[in-house]
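Researcher: We're teaching a course module on how sequence relates to structure. For the next exercise, students receive a sequence and then see the predicted structure as tokens, so they can try to spot secondary structure elements on their own. Here is the exercise chain.
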Amino acid sequence: MKRSSEGLRNVVALGFVSFFTDISSEMCFSVLPTFIIGLPKATRAFLGFIEGLAEGVSYSFRAVSGVFSDKFRRRKVIVLIGYALSNVVKPFFSVAQTAVDALVIRVGDRVGKAVRTSPRDALLSESVSEKKIGTAFGLHRTLDQTGAILGPVLASSLMLFLGFTVRDIFWLSFIPGFVALVILLAFVKERIGKPAGKVTVLGGIRSVLKGRFPLLLLVVSLFSIGAFDFSFVLLRAGEAGVSEAFVPLVYAMINVAHTIVAIPAGFLSDKIGKERVLIIGYGTFLASALLLSVRFGGVVYAFSVAFVYGAYFGITETVQRALIPGYVSSKLRGTAYGIYYLTVGASFLLANVAIGYLWDAFGSSVPFIYSAVASTLAIVGLAAFSRAKT
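Model: And here is the predicted structure for the students to work with:
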């Protein structure tokens, strides 16, 4: 019972670390797409490249941090380094003068996220029993996304009511980021023991890539190759008539939906199966892509699409990560999460470059039709994968 309560406290503490980090991050990211587009010679295609490259680099580094956390059997220190790096670099958006400047800072922030994510997810999964992993990830996502709601709302409020500029928002983001680091240092506890031997970056990968795990990665990559970043939802909102000061509130709506569905999705996945709930998540993304492909306008349309997109994100981000421990050894979860994120990142890079290019070349409908086709194929693949398991 004591171990169970300690594990729950760890999940909650990690959740509040993410809560304050997301206030910091989403203050920045809710205004970043329009900020970048306003920089000299920036295009939607280059915005897609920035987001795709940043996430691709992030996911690539997650593979390394996951392997090292397995070998050292020390997750917390790696998680701390990652959070610290992200919180230091984000304020430098305030002095960016070109899209290339923004690219460098964005990549730096995502490297920090990369360093922390795989060991953090492994630490989360080790803090609770196997039967409660979905619920634990759902609780973590809810706290995470509550911060992601407050961040955009705070950014919009500071601009609307106190006269702060977008560049001021970037500087102010350091304050909640610092609070997150204090909580991590004071309240998060290590959950694994002694080092597992000599550290090699490729150690354990061969063991992880056995059984059905590679098939799961194939389905995930098929979906991810069409999964566009939230930036394009915000750009579409601007195209639909939402003013710059209110765009952060559209982003907040994405995070509201994410927060609402995270715990129910995790709980449901523990009850009826994670694969089944993930199919629902992919289907929700398909709905958002189809809505975005239609040339409607207006504030109601923009917020409605944001809600559907946020619901997809909440389901998929919770369940897809909670699915990993069921296909790998408990001793290699950091490595497995690293490989998973590497796969998703490579696909995400291709997806967002493609979306940005298609938008610039053919308008806003074509890229979302492409995403709808990719997600449909992924749903079919995941359904076949799930049936084969049973």
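Model: If you want an answer key for the exercise: The mean pLDDT is 85. DSSP finds 16 helices and no strands in the chain.
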